[in-house]
Amino acid sequence: MKILITGASGGIGRELLQLIACDHPDASITATCYSNLPVPVPSDTVQWVQVNLTEEDQVKALAEQFDHLDWLINCAGMLHTPHQGPEKSISQFDADFFQHNFQVNTMPTLLLAKHFAPVMKTSQQGIFATISARVGSISDNHLGGWYSYRASKAALNMALKTLSIEWERTHKGVCVAALHPGTTDTALSEPFQRNVPVDKLFSPSQTAAYLLAVINQLTARESGHFWAWDGQKIPW
Ligand SMILES: NC(=O)c1ccc[n+]([C@@H]2O[C@H](COP(=O)([O-])OP(=O)(O)OC[C@H]3O[C@@H](n4cnc5c(N)ncnc54)[C@H](OP(=O)(O)O)[C@@H]3O)[C@@H](O)[C@H]2O)c1
């Protein structure tokens, strides 16, 4: 079994990598980081690669290292930068911040799908999943705000749904999925945790265990859905 975990240097990605490496000791696992260093993993089956997932030539070069892939789990994403956070009001909208959200939250999944399509084609129990966010659900939006992040995750969800329709014909053994991790105590959520009840703020290892339980249940017949950490389907 061959597994690729992108964004594996992040809070959720690193815990998911540790769990998957323990669960699949015989798998060949590739993990990517970007600006942070690789995280030590107690497994010699993990190979680290540094990749900027917003650069198509780097994604292409990564894919060229594979002749086959079963699981691709993309954990990369962003919510804020050192200078800007999600908008509380439309008056705070900024075109550059909006584009940055789309570059990091939406585009990598499309680039990964494009360049890994050939090597996932023969997988019989394949999974192509990206961590999205419940706030990207249009029908679940009751609070407003966070224009750029919400829009980038809604676009990500549309990209995954569209891919699932194409791959139903071409990649019959692969399940395409969007995943919602729940609010998790990482650098990404840290500035926004104040109003989150303690029992609704998961540790990264808790989230990784929940997400892996969902991933383990996925089959190609259930392709094209948006799954929450507890295994419930979220409406698009
Ligand atoms: N934490 C939450 O409460 C929460 C809730 C809902 C959804 N999510 C989603 O879950 C995912 C993971 O979030 P997290 O909390 O684990 O965030 P995090 O700790 O900030 O990790 C973000 C990851 O994205 C990678 N990344 C960022 N820009 C990249 C780029 N250009 N190329 C390649 N990799 C890049 C980072 O790599 P480096 O660190 O190496 O730069 C890091 O591995 C995100 O998509 C986020 O939107 C999180």
TrEMBL record:
It holds the Pfam family adh_short. Gene3D superfamilies: NAD(P)-binding Rossmann-like Domain (3.40.50.720). One of its GO terms (cellular component) is cytoplasm. It comes from the Bacteria. GO terms for molecular function: oxidoreductase activity. CDD domains: carb_red_sniffer_like_SDR_c. PANTHER family: NAD(P)-BINDING ROSSMANN-FOLD SUPERFAMILY PROTEIN, SHORT-CHAIN DEHYDROGENASE/REDUCTASE. This is SDR family oxidoreductase. It comes from Oceanospirillum sediminis. The lineage of its organism: Bacteria, Pseudomonadati, Pseudomonadota, Gammaproteobacteria, Oceanospirillales.
